[in-house]
Model the fold of this input.
Amino acid sequence: MTDEQLVEQMNEGNREAFRELYERYKKGVYNFALRFLLDKNAAEDVAHDVFLLMHDNIYQFDVSRGKFSTWLYSITYHECCRIRKRNKKFFLLGDNEEGIKNESNHNYNDAIDLERALLRVPEKYRLPIVMIKLHGLTSAECASVLGISETNVKQRVFRAFKMLKEYYKI
Amino acid sequence: MNCKKIERIFIDVLTGEASENDAQLVQEHFSGCSQCRDQFMPMLAMNKTFRNITQHEIPNGYDERFWQKLSAHKAAPELSPPLKFMVEIFGTNVRLAFISIVGALLSVFSPIEPLLNNYQWNIIPTFLLTISLLIITFIIKQSFSWNTLIFYRRKTYENK
Ligand SMILES: [Zn+2]
Done:
């Protein structure tokens, strides 16, 4: 069953449909928030609030305007912005800085190193690349979430790749 | 094909939105242009590596905490209109404005001034009154739990 069909069922009052959508996206929303805020507790809080918001506002979701996942990630994005505005101090996951510096001979293939490098990319460039490469959004969907043009999204992704390449050299 | 055009196509390859044909074009260009190859090949390698980045596991107790939050959220009764008004009144900016107005009024018409004739500066009791008002409004605001506030802000689809 597709997400959109589940939404329809949810609108008809089916509680199991909500549970199913939660199960499908709990990890994705949490990971998205984590890679945005770089703080595990904040990411969990945001993820929970996102599902409460989804629960309350599901009737606002309009299939004709896009996929459910894009809508959900858009809520996640705005909740993250709201939380971040309130608490300016967030820190990197664990102490990854050293891990990046100590390893010199990279072959660009190690996923863990790549993720560490990714965390150092400034948010502006990190978000588009996270959405597209890790959460499966298209550039157009990413553009609609961030409220910027598609060309802009692509430029940011490219910049992010350039930065990642630089970070590997450290 | 020049390097600038290739760069544009290459970005589509990175975002996974290039056609087979475009990807072919990029590869062909790389075989003839070492500058682009050196610049872009590492990015292609990283692009493949992205597939191997796994999602972080959700923390222990994440589900339990969520379902608890949800049932608390559902159980929160809808605020009656006067209460809604209170929440609004004691919201951040309005609260400050309210306090300053009350404070200003009190400094002019201090109700306990006759009792405190000995004071030359009636600003002291006024100050105390204002502080206690601030504390009271703070307590009132805190007594509305976060869930209640969320509930107040957003209608549930069940009540639609
Ligand atoms: Zn070239």
